[in-house]
Amino acid sequence: MRFSDGVGINLESVQDTMSNRSNNKNSVWNAGVAVSYGNDGFAFGVTAGGNLGRGYGNGDERSWVNSHVGLQESNTTIISGGDTNIVGGVVRGKGIHTDIGGDLTIASLQDSLQYTGKQQNISGQITVGYGVSGSASYNQSKMNADYASVQEQSGLFAGDGGYQ
Question: Which has more confidence, 7 or 32?
Fold first, then answer.
């Protein structure tokens, strides 16, 4: 395979992006009659309670798909009269021959993911009758994530024929 240009060659990746936004709310209410039997006989009461919750999750992802040229089973030749840029690209060959008139730049691009999320819940229950009892709770969870990594290295990858 042969690539030739009198000015310069650019081999670049393709960007893929994804965004996700979600919100949630919930509420649950309950009411009823409480009956118990003990040493003092029957006891009656009224019970009521509820739960409220809300939250969100937001994520942004960016990934790169490298361009691929050349085959590992055949020789690959790159002839460039100017700068050659391999930014998110892979050149393969049994042997790789280059004749570059300017600078050769090879750079790998990082995939990235940012995520933030939060969930809150509050609940309570009360029983009134022969005495009073109640309970309440609140909980909250948060998540923040930030990730970046190169999934595929850019470069010139030669087999047994080496580099020339």
Answer: 32
